[in-house]
Every structure is written in structure tokens, then in C-alpha cells.
Amino acid sequence: MRKQTEMMFLDLPIWDYRMRATLTQMTTLLNGMCRSVAKNKEFLDWMNAQKFDLAFAYMADACPVGIIHYAKIPTWIWLSSAGLVDFAAYYMGVPMVPSYSPPITMESTDEMNFFERTKSLLGQILLVTIWKRTFADQETAIFREIDPNFPHIVELAQKCPLVMVNSNELYEFPRPTLAKIVNVGGVGIQLKDAKPLNPEFQRIVDKCEGLVVFSFGSVAPSHLMPDSWKTAFLEAFARFPSLNFVLRYEGEDLKGVINTGVPMITVALWGDQPRNAKMAAKLGIAVNLQKNDISTTTVTEALNKVINGKRKGTQYFPDFSYSQNVKRLSLMVKKKPVSPNHLVVAWAEFVAEFKTLDNLVPAGTKLNFIQYHSLDVIGFLLAVTILVLFVFWKILRFLFSELYNLSLKIRKQKQTMVAPSMQEWATSQISITLQRPTVPRHVVYARSGDCSTELIKYKRFSKPNVSLFGFESHSSESPKGR
Prior knowledge:
The chain is α/β, with parallel strands linked by helices. The protein contains 16 helices and 14 strands.
């Protein structure tokens, strides 16, 4: 177990053999535990005899869902220690929008570029597929060894009356949800119930100008971090002599820190921590440090930003310091109209009374992948559109072809009509020229008394003038009669 914990501090991709070996070991352990519980007939009979009204099932694997059904507990609530896990959202019928709702284990905000959106889509598909194959399918097979008619755990999960997630709408990425998804982030955290500090720590706080609490939580103890990290943090802390630094073995999560109203420096190690770190940075309440970039310089810069610097405004807050941002968010959480403690109690009593909440189950849980995403409708409309365009193109092609053939026919008719008409025109010109009177050659006038006689002697041409297509051909005059 120590070896797996030390791996959290390493920056390993999911396809690294050490990471795959750790995941395989974890799934094998959970499946083995499920088999041990399912084979423990005495324990299952005891659960059945207790006649529980309500059960809470943890969302890590599928075994608790099967145990609840086998023990004949009438109703149950599915719990998530983080936000809404992707496989639970999928089987509950919550809309999956990878374009702005990244997987819970992805280090990204809800504002993604093309490659991040591609990673988000593939991540959601893989998380749903892996959970079904490694947990739901295998643990269903375990229960069917006891009862061959045992339903598939996925079918049981889809009928879950209510889901409670450890998140809060005020600092969670906005996304589509359902009425059966209840956010109870911060449940059990009551600052009014906080006990006073130990006198020793109270003296330290009173003497210092500022206090920084350093902790990696209970899952990843600080003493297991690499030596290079220890050196970087200690050297950076030494550059702030006016501040006191307290190393705590077990620390609060993001929800607890927000409630205290204190800015953060986050180092995401595993699970949903990368996403939470990005979320805190977007809200302007934290500075992120990457696991592969821990050094004295980066830690010092992060401390300076949180303590003295101001952050550029976000879509949630204008230009404020990190301290002002987190105090404002903390006040919003405290003044939320309905507290998470009240939600847990009220909804638990409601589910225990009414057992099943079929009116909260969306019809999308009964649809397959093609129907859910309307791929059949999109395909049909696309086919109809292509068919209409094809028929329209065929009609246009036919019309243009007919018009072209008609134009060719008219052109040929004009050509056959032009040749005879030109010939007739030429013939008419020749006929007109032949009928034209000859020009008189000599005119002699003779007077006799009151009468005048005009004697006209005509000198005819030997050949007439012929006009052909606008050109005249003049024949030579005959020398006779001159």
C-alpha cells in the first residue's frame, strides 16, 4: 500500500505500466471483497432480518447495489464522495455534455479547446465502459453464482431513487442535471461547532503575522512525498520569515477550506483532485502547482501570489485578491438558502417514506445509444435531405439538357432557312436589273413651228448591268452607232 501511495506524487500518464498495475490491483481487491461479502450467507441473512427502511450505497464499485437488492432493502440512495461521477450520471439519465462538462478525473475546466474536448469525450466513454466491464459485469456474475436470476447491476442502478454528491452548485462547474441529483457538499461542516485551538497552537497564532497550513490530506501522507519536494517546500517557506508554517498530517478537502474562507495553493495528486484544482483556480481562490514543476522558485511565486498578489477578474468575480474571492465564496456557501445538512435529512426521510421515485426517472434511461443521441433521426433527416437534393439535381440536369437540345434544333433550323432565302434574294436582284430601262445614249431636239419633236436615239448596251450580292458588273459598250 505504501508503494501505491508514493506513486500519487509521481506525474504518471494513465497508460504507464505502474499506473495500470495499480488500477488492476485496486479492481481485483474490490471484486475480491465483493465476492467475500456475497458468499457470507450469515451476514446477508442478518441484513435481510433487520428489515432496513433505507440504505446508502457508496459509488466506488457496484457491489453495494447488489447487496442492497439481495438483502431486500426496499429503497436506497447512491452516494458519491466527490462530484457527480460520469458512469452514475450516464445510468441516471443525466445529459452528458463533454464539450463543457469534463470527466471527473480530467484536469480541465469547463472551457476547453479542441484537443481538450476530444479528450473529454473519450474520457467519458472510457469511464462508463470501464466501470461496467470491471465492476458491474463481474460483480453481477458473482451474485448470479448465488442466484441465477439475479438482475444485472446496471438495471438496478438505473432505478436508483436518489443520488447525493459531495459538491455544491456555488463552486461546481455548471452542467445539466436532474431533480434526483442532490448536492450535499459541505455536509457536517459547522464552524460554530469548531473547538478552540490548543493553547500551544494558540500562542503560535497570536505571535505570528500570518499562518500557512500545509497538508496533503489523509490519503497521501506528507512524509511520503519525494525528497526533492520536501527540499523545495522547506526552502520556499524559509523565504517568508514573518509567516508561520504548520504541517498537518490530515487536512480538509476543498469544501472544508472554502468554508473557512482561506486562499489555497493546490497540488493535485490523483482522482478528482486535478479537476478540483482547476475549478478553484478558475474561481480565483487558489494557485495551482503541477506535480512535475515543484521547485523552490515555483512554490515561492505561488506563496507571493496568494499572500500579496491580486488575480485578474473571472466570470464569477471582478478583480479581487485571492483572500477576498474566497471570503466572498465562503459567505455565499454559508448563506445558501438550504443547508446540505437539511438536504440530507429531508431527502433521506422522503425516500424512506415513498420508497421508489419512478416519477423522477427520466425516459432516457430506457433508450439505447442511438436513440438517446437521436442518431436515427439525424440519419433519417440527412437521408431525406440528400434524396431531395439528388432529385432536384436530376430535375435541373434534365431541364438544362432539354433546353440545350432545343437550342441546337433552333440553330439548325435557322441555318437551313438562311441558304434558300439568300439564293432567292440574289435572283431577285438580277431580275430587277434586267427590267431596268436602258440609259439613252443620244438625244436630239428639233423645233418646227410651235411644236417640238423629240427624237430620241437609243444606244443600247451589248450586255445588261447585273447586280449580284451588292456588287455591279458593267459590260463594255458596243462601238456600233457611235
